[in-house]
Fold this sequence. Notes:
Layout: E1 6-9, H1 15-28, H2 37-42, H3 45-54, E2 61-67, E3 73-80, E4 91-99, H4 108-124, E5 128-133, H5 139-146, E6 150-161, E7 164-174
Parallel strand pairs: 4-5
Antiparallel strand pairs: 1-2, 2-3, 3-4, 5-7, 6-7
Amino acid sequence: xQNSIFYRPLEExxxxxxxxxxxxxxxxxxxxxxxxxxxxxxxxxxxKEHFFxxxxxxxxxxxxxxxxxxxxxxxxxxxxxxxxxxKRRHKGVLWGMYVKxxxxxxxxxxxxxELILLAAKQDAGCEQAIITVTPPGSPAQxxxxxxxxxxxxxxxxxxxxxxxxxDEVLMMKVL
Length: 175
């Protein structure tokens, strides 16, 4: 399957596919993201367009997509260096990782993360990537462990859902 998947940074023409995949991710994995489906879905299209435009500032803010043989967006991950302060520009945030369930288990998420981290290092000069993972002990945490991320803390009660609180594992990787 990996041979029939291609990867590239998302572009303006990918907006509708991005919104659809983001909605799917938030709906299917509510514990994995800080943003909730209802808030995202209720946001006006203009807000979504503005947000999408902000993540198209390669290499300092971008989203990498995985596309199947038909050109459909089936996975994505995002990266942002959010710091205006010079002393903090050496680190960036990996976020929004998601692969459609039917494509999982084929290394697509790993490839997305590896390509994002490589671009962050080579093209943006980033030295360190950080990510938050929920819930602690999840398959997602193992995924990032396997990519070489290390845990440096836990933010207790970081997210509040109707079902209760969720802690976030704080992880980082030196690039």
